């Protein structure tokens, strides 16, 4: 293995001026601050969560339940758990539980305080791990409302922080529903509901909600007891127990070869094709990938579904991380959570025995920025006392400005931070328990039609290649992995059902708006309509608004779209080229210039609008264009037009698959 060069630390000479200013400021702060104010956390073995039966009932307890798809709610929950442990010390039991593993029927009525951190997905739906709990609690509410059950949560206090994005029609629908459900079941709110908006700064929203929560807890000391005396709260860092195995031990597969029906049960599918969709003239890349699912006969998808996949870090990243950990790539080990094997809510480590190279490839998110607890964990193992102090400062409230300048603004990755603090060499147990978050699966809108390709899932993936402020080139973990794949390679995938579906009635008009890779599900829709036409079925009008930069660079699937117009699978195709001329031309401009035709279609019974692609800008612009079409063509005021578009959504005729 090539030893990787260690980048200069943030506080060493030879770095950018900004970092030097930060250094002076930091040193000043360190010297002005009493040393005891930035404490060393203690490292605790990761234990499985207690069961209701085992719990020490003499202790006040708080349960934090999270519903997450991409890990934010889990991260916030762990962060909050640590804050509560710091505040209340050993006298209070704080437990963070994946809501999927929570036995609600048995445990919820016995809770003293339960905090829900719940993300919203799909079109106002719960995350996959919260789906069962959500439908259970909705049924309970129905039973209470119908008088079948009493309001049986009257002794329970609760708090809700919803995670969502204002871009979506049903902003924080799940958080809101959790609040009304707990209220309907008789529980008492501890503080206001927090509505985290991922479109803005969800970390700040969470921090504000935590401030309110802690103030409410201070005002009700009977609930969790008094806060621990200053300095006695336990600052715990979770670490797995590590069992090092003899070199060459037989390794388990990082994922079992499952059914492919959920994120917990992925299927190792074979990649059958990878091809570039941009021309050689383009400075970006977008790949068409075909994934063969014929090995799993029960695995089915529907047109418009998503495929989830577990990508892997590149070999360079893996090798670099092994160097930073000071371990050979071939290190063979197994992680254990204490109490493993017993029943209960076990926060399971990944399967073992495993080689370090595989563990780093599939399970360590090292390119995202590290959060506070990761910095504390690094500090706990830094052998250089100065580095340890600096890391603790970055993790502390006093070091918020330094965190912003050195980490957040620079988009500095965990790997870069470890390069900057080379004396921090965590054990594998601490690294996987408290430092590197688990690499989240990535989702793609399936770009094939199930009728045409029942055993092959197509993906249309824009390859991420960003230059970060530190100068680091960030190659997107999953997209660059897909780009590197060769036919015959295997990848763990699973199908995620979506509500983004063509209308049942094939005559119903559809308007599809999908620039860039937003075209993906519409390619599937077009293939579906193509199959209907081949079966001699009648299809209604279908209009596609597609956008790209330049016909000569990134007009993906051009020949297929032309053929679709020819066959009638598409009745109209409007293409916006944003960089072909002096004026930026986008899909929303074409919607407006074709406003009369769009409006006419929308007057037909059940006609649907579909939007797919970029959530941050495009979906907003398209939404505004739709309102403007309604206002101009329907002779409405802007507020009437807004209400009209809202009704379109409420009646299930305006669908978004945006990310
Ligand atoms: C339901 C759904 C459907 C989707 N469908 C498609 C589709 O059909 N086609 C498609 O191309 N994509 C689709 N996506 C997006 C896709 O899931 C991935 O998000 C995308 O491919 C990028 O993943 P990545 O791992 O390559 O990039 P990542 O490595 O996750 O990087 C993503 C972004 O994070 C930034 N970043 C990385 N590290 C840091 C840091 N330390 N600090 C700050 N920023 C950082 C990067 O610059 C980059 O902009 C979909 C997403 C969802 C949720
Ligand atoms: C495909 C998709 C659908 C989403 N749907 C909604 C939605 O309907 N309402 C909402 O408020 N937020 C929605 N969001 C935003 C997420 O809830 C938000 O990004 C949240 O921070 C994710 O939390 P997590 O990382 O814990 O899963 C959606 C995000 C994606 C990617």
Walk me through the structure:
- Its EC number is 1.6.2.4.
- Keywords: FAD, Flavoprotein, FMN, Membrane, NADP, Oxidoreductase, Transmembrane, Transmembrane helix.
- The chain crosses the membrane at residues 12-32.
- It is a single chain.
- The chain has 22 helices and 25 strands.
- It has 659 residues and is α/β, with parallel strands linked by helices.
- Among the domains are: 56-236, Rossmann fold (3-Layer(aba) Sandwich), CATH 3.40.50.360; 510-658, Nucleotide-binding domain of ferredoxin-NADP reductase (FNR) module (Rossmann fold, 3-Layer(aba) Sandwich), CATH 3.40.50.80.
- Strands 2, 3, 4, 5, 6, 7 and 8 form a 7-stranded mixed sheet that branches. Strands 16-13-20-11-12-17 form a 6-stranded antiparallel sheet, covered by helices on one side.
- The longest helix has 18 residues, at 202-219.
- The protein starts with 16 loop residues before the first helix and ends with a strand.
Globular, elongated, flat, extended or rod-shaped: what is the shape? globular
Instruction: Say how many strands there are.
Output: 25
Helix amount, in percent?
Answer: 25-40%
Number of helices: 22
In this entry the ligands are: flavin-adenine dinucleotide, flavin mononucleotide
Largest sheet: 7 strands, mixed
Percent of residues in beta strands? 15-25%
Arithmetic mean pLDDT: 90
CATH architecture assignment of the domain at 56-236: 3-Layer(aba) Sandwich
**According to CATH, what is the class of the domain at 56-236?**
Alpha Beta
CATH-level-4 superfamily name of the domain at 56-236: Flavodoxin domain
Question: What would the CATH topology of the domain at 56-236 be?
Answer: Rossmann fold
State the end-to-end CA separation: 38 Å
> Mind telling me the C-alpha Rg?
26 Å
Look at the helices and sheets and give the structural class. Answer: alpha/beta
- Unreliable stretches (pLDDT < 50, length at least 5) are 1-37, 340-346
């Amino acid at each position: 293995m090539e030893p990787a060069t260690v980048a200069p630390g943030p506080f060493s000479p030879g770095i950018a001026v900004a970092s030097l200013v930060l250094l002076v400021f930091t040193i000043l702060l360190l010297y002005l601050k009493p040393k005891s104010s930035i404490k060393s956390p203690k490292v605790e073995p990761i234990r499985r969560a207690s069961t209701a039966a085992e719990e020490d009932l003499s202790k006040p307890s708080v349960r934090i339940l999270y519903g997450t798809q991409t890990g934010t709610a889990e991260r916030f929950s762990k962060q909050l758990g640590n804050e509560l442990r710091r505040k209340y010390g050993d006298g209070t039991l704080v437990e963070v539980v994946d809501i999927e593993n929570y036995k609600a029927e048995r445990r919820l009525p016995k809770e003293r305080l339960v905090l829900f951190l719940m993300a919203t997905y799909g079109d106002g739906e719960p995350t996959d791990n919260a789906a069962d709990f959500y439908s259970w609690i909705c049924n309970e509410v129905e039973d209470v409302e119908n008088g079948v059950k009493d309001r049986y949560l009257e002794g329970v206090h609760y708090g809700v922080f919803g995670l969502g994005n204002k871009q979506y029609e049903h902003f924080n629908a799940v958080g809101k529903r959790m609040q009304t459900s707990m209220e309907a079941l008789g529980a008492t709110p501890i503080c206001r509901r927090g509505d985290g908006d991922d479109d803005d700064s969800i970390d700040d929203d969470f921090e504000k909600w935590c401030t309110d929560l802690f103030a409410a807890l201070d005002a009700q000391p009977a609930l969790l007891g008094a806060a621990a005396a200053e300095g006695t709260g336990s600052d715990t860092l979770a670490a797995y127990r590590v069992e090092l195995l003899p070199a060459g031990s037989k390794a388990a597969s990082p994922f079992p070869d499952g059914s492919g029906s959920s994120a917990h049960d992925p299927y190792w599918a074979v990649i059958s094709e990878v091809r570039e969709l941009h021309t050689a003239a383009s400075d970006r890349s977008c790949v068409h990938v075909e994934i063969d699912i014929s090995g799993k006969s029960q695995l089915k998808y529907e047109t418009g579904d998503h495929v989830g996949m577990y990508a892997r870090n590149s070999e360079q990243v893996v090798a670099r991380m092994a160097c930073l950990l000071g371990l050979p790539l071939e290190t063979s080990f197994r992680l254990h959570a204490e109490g493993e094997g017993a029943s209960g809510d076990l926060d399971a480590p990944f399967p073992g025995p495993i080689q370090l190279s595989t563990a780093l490839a599939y399970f360590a998110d090292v390119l995202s920025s590290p959060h506070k607890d990761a910095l504390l964990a690094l500090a706990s193992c830094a052998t250089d006392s100065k580095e340890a102090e600096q890391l603790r400062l970055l993790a502390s409230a006093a070091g918020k400005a330094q965190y912003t300048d050195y980490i957040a603004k620079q988009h500095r990755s965990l790997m870069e931070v470890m390069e900057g603090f080379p004396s921090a060499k965590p054990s594998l147990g601490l690294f996987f328990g408290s430092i590197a978050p688990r690499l989240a699966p990535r989702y793609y809108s399936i770009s094939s039609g199930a009728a045409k390709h029942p055993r092959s899932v197509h993906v249309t993936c824009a390859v991420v290649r960003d230059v970060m402020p530190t100068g680091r080139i960030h190659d997107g973990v999953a997209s660059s992995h897909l780009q590197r794949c060769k036919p015959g390679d295997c990848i763990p995938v699973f199908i995620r059902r979506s509500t983004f579906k063509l209308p049942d009635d094939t005559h119903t008009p559809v308007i599809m708006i999908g620039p860039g890779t937003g075209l993906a599900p519409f390619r599937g829709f077009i293939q579906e309509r193509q199959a209907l036409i081949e079966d001699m079925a009648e299809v209604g009008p279908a209009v596609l608004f597609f956008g790209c930069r330049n016909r000569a660079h990134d007009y993906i699937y051009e020949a297929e779209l032309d053929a679709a117009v020819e066959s009638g699978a598409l009745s109209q195709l409007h293409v916006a080229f944003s960089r072909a001329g002096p004026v930026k031309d986008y899909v929303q401009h074409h919607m407006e210039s074709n406003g009369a035709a769009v409006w006419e279609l929308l007057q037909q019974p059940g006609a649907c609008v579909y939007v797919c692609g970029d959530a941050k800008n495009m979906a907003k612009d398209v939404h505004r264009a739709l309102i403007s079409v309604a206002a101009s063509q329907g002779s409405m005021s802007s507020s009437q037009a807004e209400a009209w578009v809202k009704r379109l959504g409420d009646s299930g005729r305006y669908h978004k698959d945006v990310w």
